[in-house]
What does this fold into?
Amino acid sequence: MSLHPTLAKVTDRIIERSKDSRRRYLDLIDRQRDEGVHRPTLSSGNLAHGFAASGEDKPTIKAGTAMNIGIVTAYNDMLSAHQPYGRYPELIKVFARERGSTAQVAGGVPAMCDGVTQGQDSMELSLFSRDVIAMGTAVGLSHGMFEGALLLGICDKIVPGLLIGTLRFGHLPTILVPAGPMPSGLANKEKIRVRQLYAEGKVSEDELLEAESASYHGAGTCTFYGTANSNQMMMEMMGLHMPGSSFVNPGNKLRQELTRAAVHRMTEIGWDGEDYRPLGHCIDEKAIVNAVVGLLATGGSTNHVIHLPAIARAAGIVLDWDDMDELSDIVPLIASVYPNGAGDINYFHAAGGMPYVIRELLDAGLAHGDILTVYGQSLAEGAREPVMDGDSLVWKPAAQESRDETLLKPVTDPFRKDGGLALLEGNLGRATMKVSAVDPERHTIEAPARVFSDQHAVAEAFKAGELDRDVVVVLRFQGPAANGMPELHKLTSPLGVLQDRGYKVALVTDGRMSGASGKVPSAIHVSPEAFHGGPLAKVRDGDMVRVCATTGTLEALVGASEWDARELAAAPPPEMGTGRELFAMLRHHSDPAEKGGSAMLAEAGL
It folds into this structure.
């Protein structure tokens, strides 16, 4: 199948726009391979420090005759998604020895969970934890002891941070190694029911905790289709995982064999072999476009409207929201996974999962097959399902038909004809809106504004009955520079209650909503942010605001002369405590959401 003309046009535009920055990037990683820090350049003292505690691997590392793999891990045992990684380094070392190679943990990076910090002050550290992870990754790989890298991370900022950091060592072949989702727990519909009852004061805190504990109940990624599972989808669309490995549950033989396969494959794609596959060449303009297409086709996390431009920048590629919006017009929604649908990620995987999605998109000319994957000659080899044949891992072709059309449908009969992601523009700025889970009757909301500068104040106003009407909640000073751009997912339940009561409700914010954004129309990531003089700082209580995904409109319906004459509201002073003050420098230097909301990339001139 030939490429869809719009896909080809957008890709060509990104290539042309990125021509100079991409050339500089590729020149950099070529120099890093030939002239940078690596084992042959280390002095005897450097090298002795590097393998001093390597035990049985010491002679092999000392000889320098085999690949040494650097492991960057986001392990901690507080977070369910990362808890399984505890034993991975020892297993990886064993699997590397099977191929005559070695492996060392290059470093650990923090793994912050938005689920734990949601609605808490500490959520203001969340977005910039991505910069910290990228810098931590760079520190680990900077020792020059490694000829390849395995990245152990799954959740929200962790995968983007790992990629951004490793892309600055883009001469290294790199594979991401997932750990899989937890088994399904409490039905999502029941979880939402209890949350909304709690928001209305109709069930107790103990009942809410029981419901949440039945939903998030074991080791593995949370099973809703939020940012963590969208990360895994994107890695498959970019060819950076072993085929079909994203959504295999932890703790079984198949999961272990997929990890072994990743290690064995790493030993085959090093720079001394005939199949050298450096990360900086795997992640090119076509791979980035594939990630966007996958996001749209599966109804993935809105957080990637920020993360993907940042990942692209680290590889010298310039991606913007216009690119995403244009692709959204042609990419059909072929997956319906909670919160867009009823079934969770385990049911999606059982229905055919990523191998099915990849096959469908390639057959329709909606993805680039000719990318440099970590495993084969094209992305088409990613359209395979891993299974155990006795004690051996084998791959079989993707399902020809969906095994459950409530979760997965063919491109020829999608859930929506577009990708369900809209770019909104108007006198309030530019914003993104995920509409794949929003009832079409609510794609246009026009109502009086109620203005807030703090999410807790929104919750209090809801409890006091002040929002029981048609309302556009305008929550400003939530951008990267103001307070680190926390997710505002805690507002989902009260706003959902208002909507269920029959009111026209929308949220407009320069903050983030959630990778699990749901049924309430939400214009998010509004840029420029209010802190930098963005027009959200002009909105007043009672202003009529129009949010329309159909026409791509985000407007305060105020006369032009009055609007131009209005003064900007003052930003609240920065808060202290919970470590927020330590991130002041990152807030101060951050760039806009559309460029990725990164201080590190902005200051690096990328």
Remarks:
- The chain has a mean pLDDT of 94.
